[in-house]
Design goal:
Blueprint lengths: L2 H35 L1 H4 L3 H4 L11 H4 L9 H29 L5 H33 L10 H4 L12 H19 L4 H24 L5 H29 L1
C-alpha cells in the first residue's frame, strides 16, 4: 500500500468516526440544550396558580416523609458526588487504556483510537442521559419538595418543577455504568470492573441521598434517576459496540 492509499484509508476512518460518533453527539447535545431552553415556555407553574394542588396530601406516602428536610450544605455535597462520578467515569477507563499501551498490549495508534472512542462514548452517554432527564422534567413537571413549603412564592419559578427525575443521580449512574461497560469491553480484569461497579453504587447512593437531604428531590425521584441513568448508559454503549462490530 502506497502513501496515497494510506492517506485515503486514514481519511475514511476519520470520516466514519465523525459520522458514527461525533455527529450523533452534537445532535444530542443540541437537543438537550434546546429542551433546557424551552423550560420557561413549556412548564406550567401550577402551584402558584392553584396552591391547593400542591399540598402534602397530594404526595405519595413514600415521598411524604421527605418533606421538611433541608440540611445545610447537603446541596453542595450532592454536587461533589455528581462531579466526582463524572471525573471517575472518565479517568478510570483512561488509565486502564493507557496501561495497555504502557504494557505494550496495544500500539500507540490503537491506543489513541481507543481513547477517542471511549471519550466520545462517555460524552454521548452524558448527553443522552441529560436529554432524557430534561424530557422527563418537561413532561412530568413535578414540583421540588421545597416548593410545598410556600407554593405561591416558590412555585412561581418554572425551574422549580424539575423534580422528576433526579438529574444528579442519573448523571452519576450513567457515567459510572458507562465506565464499567467500557472496562468490560476493553477486557479489564473482573476485580477492576466489579470494584468500579461497587464504587459507583456508593456514589449513586450518596448523590441521591444528599439530593433528598437538600430538599431538591423525593425518594422516588432519585430511585428513578439511578435506574434511568443506568439504562441510558447501557443503551448508548450497547448500540455503539454493536455498530462498531458490524462495521469492523
Amino acid at each position: 500500500m502506497n502513501r496515497q492509499d494510506d492517506k485515503a484509508t486514514a481519511l475514511y476512518k476519520v470520516q466514519t468516526f465523525f459520522n458514527q460518533n461525533i455527529a450523533p453527539l452534537l445532535m444530542t447535545m443540541a437537543l438537550w440544550a434546546a429542551a433546557v431552553h424551552i423550560r420557561g415556555t413549556v412548564i406550567r407553574p401550577k402551584c402558584s396558580i392553584i396552591p391547593t394542588s400542591c399540598t402534602a396530601s397530594s404526595i405519595p406516602a413514600i415521598d411524604r416523609v421527605t418533606l421538611g428536610i433541608d440540611l445545610p450544605n447537603a446541596d453542595l455535597f450532592s454536587f461533589y458526588g455528581q462531579n466526582s462520578s463524572g471525573v471517575l467515569g472518565f479517568l478510570i477507563p483512561l488509565f486502564w487504556t493507557l496501561s495497555l499501551g504502557l504494557r505494550k498490549k496495544i500500539n500507540w495508534t490503537t491506543l489513541f483510537g481507543f481513547l477517542a472512542f471511549d471519550a466520545t462514548l462517555l460524552l454521548q452517554t452524558i448527553c443522552t442521559n441529560g436529554l432524557l432527564t430534561e424530557i422527563s422534567h418537561l413532561v412530568v413537571q413535578r414540583p421540588r419538595p421545597f416548593v410545598y413549603s410556600s407554593p405561591t412564592v416558590l412555585g412561581a419559578d418554572p425551574a422549580n418543577y424539575t423534580s422528576f427525575y433526579s438529574g444528579h443521580t442519573s448523571f452519576s449512574a450513567a457515567t459510572l455504568t458507562a465506565a464499567v461497560l467500557i472496562l468490560i469491553h476493553r477486557k479489564a480484569p473482573a476485580w477492576l470492573y466489579f470494584g468500579v461497579l461497587l464504587l459507583g453504587q456508593g456514589f449513586i447512593f450518596t448523590t441521591g441521598h444528599f439530593r433528598i437531604l437538600a430538599s431538591r428531590h423525593f425518594l422516588t425521584d432519585v430511585i428513578c434517576g439511578g435506574l434511568a441513568g443506568t439504562l441510558a448508559a447501557w443503551f448508548v454503549c450497547t448500540l455503539s459496540y454493536q455498530r462498531t462490530q458490524r462495521d469492523s
